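User: I'll paste a sequence; please echo it back and then give the predicted structure.

Assistant: Echoing your sequence first, then the prediction.
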Amino acid sequence: MKTRRIVALGGGGFSMEPHNLALDRWILSLTDTKRPKVCFLPTASGDATGYAAKFLSAFGRLDCEPSLLSLFRRDRDDLRGFLLDQDVIYVGGGNTANMLELWRTHGVDTALREAWEAGVILTGLSAGSLCWYEEGVTDSLGTNLAPLKDGLGLLSGSHCPHYDGEEDRRPTYQRLVQGGDLASGIAADDGVGLLYEGEDLVEVVTSRPGTRAWRVSRDDDGILEEPIEPRVLPADPASTPFRGGCHCGRVVWEIDVDPRQETVLDCNCSICAKKGFLHLIVAPEKFRLLEGEEMLREYRFNTGQAVHRFCGECGVHSFYTPRSHPDQVDVNVRCVQGLSLAELTIEPFDGQNWEDRVDEIR
């Protein structure tokens, strides 16, 4: 009989840590196949095309055969056969309640159980973690966190993902368990992976040192929270920074963000259209100017709030301080080394009507 395995991720993986695919590589290492087939189910996000593109980009760089299964735009008749042919089925985040309802309509719930029993590894984060349990805490049913009582039930008890990643998750889960609204269960911080064989939790790992899993239960004094220390996964070899700069090489910087996993904006305002600037806004702690600070020249126009910085030698505009995000850094993705436009998710932004549209990107 095949080993039935589930990997529940509290958070992390390609969509939350695009610069660190340690969790995703670990999941692939659990298969017995040299080049495993990995199917992504983005149902919970409404089969968002950007989400699917990030999966294909990330797993396209790993030693596997990635594919997608869409229920909103069905292009397959035999869903059961397709899922049973996979080595790993990876479920994305989003609205858990809507996902479960749609799965049941299309028979995916039954196919997933069959795949699990046949030895296919089931995994996912957030909604893709919660769905395997009998019940758990969700934000799918309104504006507040609430109990979800109709999970697939492959794993007994309850579950809470994002235990450290969202302010209300931990107190809400404890309150629901203590009050009897949810059964005792397992919570997982972002970056934590829970490996089950059958219904037994056999290993806990993390891509983020300092995070952990937790057993949460009721006791005579109220709530009992027992930490489970994980094994820290080795740093992902593909997590090295992306480097960019100007044409002459005097201005050099690097970012700790993978542009292939982000949405890049193509603005049609007068200055961006003339320069061909493709925008990726990053936090200042993820940007480092390595060389050429003395070479930078500033240009401001109109309101003067945007600080455009050009190399004084070659004139290339590789990064600047944007008016929309004055506390962050906007890098020109065309200036990042080793990237092809075909690898990017590019969306237009109507900068000609900046005042009316800026809230779309803030």
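The chain is about 20% helix and 30% strand. The domain at 242-360 is CATH 2.170.150.70 (Metal Binding Protein, Guanine Nucleotide Exchange Factor; Chain A).
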